[in-house]
Amino acid sequence: MSDLSSAPARVQGAVRIVGAGLLGASIGLALRAKGVDIILDDASPSQLRLAIDYGAGRAAEPTDDPSVVVICVPPDVTARVIEAELAAFPRAVVTDVASVKLEPYRALLERGVDLTRYIGSHPLAGRERGGAISARADLFLGRPWVICRDAETPAWALSQVEGLALDLGTIPMEMTPDEHDRFVALVSHTPQLVASLLAAQLQDAEEGAIQLAGQGLRDTVRIASSAPELWVQILSANHAEVLPVLEQLSTDLTSVISALRDPEVPGARRTIADTIAAGNTGVARLPGKHGQNRRFASIVVLLDDRPGQLGALFTELGEIGVNIEDLRLEHSPGANIGLAEVQVLPEVKQRTVDDLESRGWRIAEV
To answer: How open is the CA angle 325-330-334, to the nearest 5 degrees?
Structure first.
């Protein structure tokens, strides 16, 4: 992979970031690595100082004249901050990273704000834990960055936001605010609720059940660690699009519950099988590496629970010329061994297994 930080920045001029949390600080870190002057502002003085200490940018000065303003604040204040930044910096293009696009857009229209220099956007990236302390310069690499332009958006303004997205290593995608909110309701907002509902079942679970939890459960509930305060705002703002997805999910779940009440009833087993098969079809549509709908072959390697094992595995895979398309790690409580599930191209699977075994690695599953 080429080093994105070595390429000249596409975005021109200084970039002001309002909101120095996870997304804002990550944007700052990535753009500073390309030599861009980053101006940070945050309603919380301590959050601002922390982001500056981590190297995400500098404090604002009265003479600042940014070319781009990126607003990274909670959804319930996004529209107000957009309006204020448009007024404060009349030469800047203003964008935001809120995960709901239609509500702030409508609010600004109702207030009569001139939106010529405003372009809503949303990077589909994040982590379970927020704040500048969790920021990463590579947070956005390979992730979609939705840009919501309208018919009045001038080309020069669009090029600044597209340049920003490309400088961060994302894949820019144009959508209307309506399309964006409908799509994220399915692929982001509903999964958050489903993960949280499932993880909530663990609160009172017996300790024996918790000890049996494996990677499947961990994968499913990973995002359940997200901040409740933020998600109340997101789900409230996009409730109109989330509700139909939840209602369909409820209908499907009711059907499965009915089948499981008496699996001997004619058609019950088919209902269960069709549900699992539909899941197979759905997951097969998810984009793989570089946006391709490809399925990879899985190799599970046993790792001794000692320092350096994973690094050694990576080194040897490199030496035998095999690219890791995806990776999962699992460690069972009380066991002195871990599992590394390596995804590779199907055509190199057998060669990889043979080469690893010849080098002394134990393959748990082929």
So the answer is: 165
